[in-house]
Design goal:
The complex is a heterodimer of chains A (281) and B (288). Chain A is α+β, with helices and mostly antiparallel strands and 281 residues long. Chain A is built from six helices and eleven strands. Classes of the chains: A alpha+beta (281), B mainly alpha (288).
Chain lengths: 281, 288
């Protein structure tokens, strides 16, 4: 009947033994998969499926056998770290981000998490650099930035949410700033902060990201002052924002007020909220 | 019958002969009658790695899809003008509203679909974490599957053949008629299949590794569009990769529907063969 399947005679006892083993493995695997999915599933989803009481009871049993919520979080964060390590291994300082022509520019959404800061801060704005080789901090004002060579690029900004936009940026290269004010020896990270960010109610809610120095040194990493030929508005991070097109949009911090060069990986606003730390595209 | 007497005499002669070659004669006769006593004729249908990866795919694809929907929720691709009543712009949310209207006790709002088929709304971080966890398992599992196909030679049953177009049409005709003919109580024989799979099965099963590869490629194209820029170019654009990724997901879901129906209709042997590997179907009931 079949041209592909050779027929074979097998001892009944052997066949029965083999099949029993396979069925037991199948059952054990099914139970393990269900337990595993339960362990890592969000509580809200579990309650939606089985209701509050059953969920609480099963979670108690799971915690007793070591499948606690804490461990689940740590396990899932390891998956994120693994993916970050892959991203870091893929990164090449010589690989440039695809650039577009000005005709390709698309509208850019203001994706501030909270309220957009009102422009009052602009008059008092300064950029503080710390962790420098010189040992003392440096405070820069807008005219200081104008003295650096200006660069222009049209690149795509990819948001972690899934949307993306093409925008023309101009400003100074981060690498030029690093050359002018070199970090202290041993520094591996830039901790970049914006003290003017607000939460949804309009209260101060500083934003901070971690940027590894190899990324900061990339020729397409800009400290941008202009968007599509116009000075940045407060909606896009006036007067100075980071443009790292080789990272997700959430690393492109707006209205930077401080850059600290540090040895250990600094904290990152979204990494503390369950997202990855590296975010390399 | 009427010569009972002479036979009584004969055994004397036979006994004499039997002394000469009795040991050889009797065992040989027994072997011819039942050469496979205590044995069963089966065909080895699925290699152990194929079975393992097939079942591992169930929780893995489940994890990929439910987390993928929570990721999709953060920025849907397929949008229309806002609905006047629901304010929804998203076709998937509309689907959820349509389903929820028929579910007792459910509130038909745009979040219903993502709350019941995904990991919930406002859960992008959780969705991404699941997605990266399961995608590496999905890739590893795909490699296991391909390994099993090669080692068990199962790939040969998936290769396209010259007769596939005609066979496919015969199968489509058969499936189209199977219910009406049952109602009409008229015989409706299954087309004669002399291979492991019929042409439709072959096409569907062969498309699975292709769809899997496409899902992985389009996924990486949008995950690492800078370092893997050539992959993004392959899909035309960043959004092109998103659309392909989404369509492949729908393809997986659509594949599941006939897959589940047909395995239930086809019977226990087919289901069992994916667990134990062997089948008696081909040996005992040819042309089923």
């Amino acid at each position: 009947m079949s041209d592909e399947l050779p027929q074979v005679w097998i001892d009944e006892t052997k066949l029965r033994k083999r099949s029993r083993r396979d069925f037991l493995l199948f059952g054990a695997g099914t139970l393990a998969a269900m337990a595993g999915l339960w362990w890592i599933a969000p509580v809200s989803s579990k309650k939606r499926v089985l209701g509050e009481h059953v969920t609480d009871a099963l979670d108690t049993v799971a915690a007793r056998v070591g499948l606690s919520k804490d461990r689940s979080e740590r396990f899932q964060n390891r998956a994120l770290t693994f993916d970050d390590d892959i991203a870091e291994a893929l990164y090449s300082p010589n690989r440039t981000v695809r650039t577009y022509s000005k005709r390709d520019v698309t509208p850019l959404r203001n994706n501030y998490e909270g309220r957009t800061p009102s422009p009052e801060y602009l008059d008092m704005w300064t950029l503080t650099l710390t962790g420098l080789a010189s040992g003392s901090d440096v405070v820069l004002r807008q005219p200081d930035l104008a003295r650096f060579a200006q660069h222009e690029q049209v690149t795509r900004l990819c948001c972690v949410e899934g949307w993306s936009a093409i925008a023309g940026w101009s400003g100074i290269r981060f690498s030029d700033l690093l050359r002018a004010f070199p970090p202290a020896g041993g520094a591996k990270w830039a901790a970049i902060e914006s003290s003017v960010n607000l939460d949804g109610r309009g209260n101060p809610d500083p934003y901070y990201v971690s940027i590894d120095l190899p990324t900061a040194q990339h020729p397409q990493t800009l400290l941008a002052t202009h968007l599509n030929g116009h000075p940045l508005g407060t909606d896009h991070g006036a007067p100075l924002r980071l443009v790292v097109p080789m990272k997700l949009g959430l690393k492109n911090i707006k209205a930077i007020t401080k850059i600290a060069y540090v040895v250990a990986e600094p904290r990152d606003f979204w990494a503390e909220r369950g997202y990855s730390k590296y975010d390399g595209l | 019958m009427d010569s009972e007497e002479p036979i009584v005499d004969v055994p004397v002669v036979v006994e004499e002969v039997a002394v000469a070659e009795p040991v050889v004669e009797e065992p040989v006769v027994e072997e011819v009658v039942d050469p496979h006593a205590g044995q069963r004729l089966v065909v080895n249908k699925h290699h152990a790695l194929v079975r393992l990866s097939h079942w591992l795919n169930v929780p893995i694809l489940f994890g990929m899809i439910v987390s993928g929907l929570s990721i999709y929720w953060a920025s849907p691709v397929f949008l229309h003008k806002p609905d006047r009543i629901t304010h929804s712009r998203d076709y998937l949310a509309d689907l959820g509203i349509a389903i929820a209207r028929h579910v007792p006790g459910a509130t038909a709002d745009p979040s219903w679909f993502y709350n019941h088929f995904g990991l919930g709304v406002f859960n992008l971080a959780g969705g991404l974490r699941w997605h990266w966890l399961f995608v590496y398992l999905f890739i590893a599992n795909g490699i296991l599957y391909l390994l099993g196909l090669i080692l068990g030679r199962g790939y040969r049953a998936l290769l396209p053949r010259r007769t596939m177009l005609g066979e496919s049409l015969a199968m489509v005709r058969y499936y189209a008629g199977v219910v009406p003919m049952k109602i009409a109580r008229r015989p409706w024989p299954h087309p004669e299949i002399t291979t492991k799979y019929n042409a439709l099965q072959r096409g569907a099963y062969a498309s699975m590794p292709v769809a899997g590869a496409l899902a992985i490629a389009s996924g990486w194209a949008m995950h690492k569009p800078v370092q893997l820029w050539w992959l993004e170019r392959m899909f035309g654009s960043y959004d092109g990769a998103r659309i392909v990724h989404f369509i492949v997901m729908i393809y997986f879901v659509l594949f599941l529907i006939p897959h589940l129906i047909l395995v239930l209709v086809d019977g226990w042997d087919t289901m069992r063969s994916m667990i134990v590997g062997w089948s008696t179907r081909v040996a005992e009931a040819p042309n089923e």
